[in-house]
Amino acid sequence: MILALRVLLPFSLAYLIAYLLRVVNAVAGDPLRMELGLSTSELGLLTSLYFLGFALFQLPFGILMDRYGPRRVEAILLLLAALGCVIFAVATDFAELLFGRIMMGIGAAMCLMAPFTAYRRWFSPERVPLVVGIHMSFGAIGASLGGGPTEWLLGITGWRAMFGLLAGLVVVVSAMIFFVVPRRNDPVGTVPMKTLAIEVGAILKSPAMWRIAPLSATSQAGMLAIVSLWTGPWLREAAGHDSATAAMWLSITSIGLLIGYLGFGFITGRAERSGHAVHVFVAGSFAFALVELLIIVLPPQTATPLWILYTITGSAGVLSYGIATQSFPNAMAGRVNTTVNFIVFFFAFLVQWGFGIVLDFFPNGAGGATRAGYQVALSILLVLQLLAIVPLLVVRNVRTPDWSVR
Hints:
Layout: H1 2-23, H2 25-36, H3 40-56, H4 58-68, H5 70-90, H6 94-107, H7 113-122, H8 128-145, H9 148-180, H10 193-205, H11 207-238, H12 243-274, H13 277-297, H14 300-303, H15 306-314, H16 319-325, H17 333-360, H18 371-394
């Protein structure tokens, strides 16, 4: 048990802070926008750069992780995230904010994939889904801290001091991963980096990857991009809640993440053993789309509690990682997971930025957007999600190729 905690706890705490950094602008965005005079689309671009930094380095960091191990790679990268927080905290113009934000994303790039890879090496296959569910629930806690607690802390410290505090926490967690996580399961092989890179190219060309990637990207990016930034403005501008009430609902909504991640972590183990993981993923994605449709068409005050269901059903996207890795050898797990993550978070960057661009066409006269703008933006996303389900419905079986490229 102690050994399991030495692996699970440091990685989970890192994911908690990474998730908090991801969603913090849903509350801190208003003070930022007012102090620096940002438009809605600029706030969307600024926040979405976290996803861009996260996405762009998935593939190279995935290669490094399979070569040097998740413990060393994540511990070092977190120091870059801490540096990004410091740059953000002292920024005096939009360009400096952009640089600090993308550094946060680069530094947090392995906070999901490094643990996924480590858990496969440390825990038996039947325990991995539950361990992953527990790990993901720490992200839900981070999301919860990004609501009411962040609103409270902002009132005391302001957004600059808050990001300075986050930088210090990131450094502490980096040290925990490097010194507390045991070293004995670190890779000891000497596979050439060129070979690892060639295999990444093979993964990207694989039909098995592109059968699952579109739905993985649209469902997860839909939840990640919206909940981490645009749910807060929707609560304030479309539903008419004040800032404190909106922050409270953001914290409550994160309970959905906790339920969803733990629930799907439990379901995944059973589904994979019975061969029904794809069916559960598709069913969860349809449920997610239905909740999104209800948020679009129902009166905002009525739809507000539905954001809890939005995060519960949106958590089904975590199933896609296990489904994707089933078609590849265990030695390639780090690169398979980071390839999926690259696609997911690059799309999340586009969605979060694009959402703000759409909202700019529907100004409310107070620096925000009207309800109609949110309806249009969510409708575009809904259509993309439904189209992405088609490959999983049409393509039943994908031939597993010979991966002996070494």
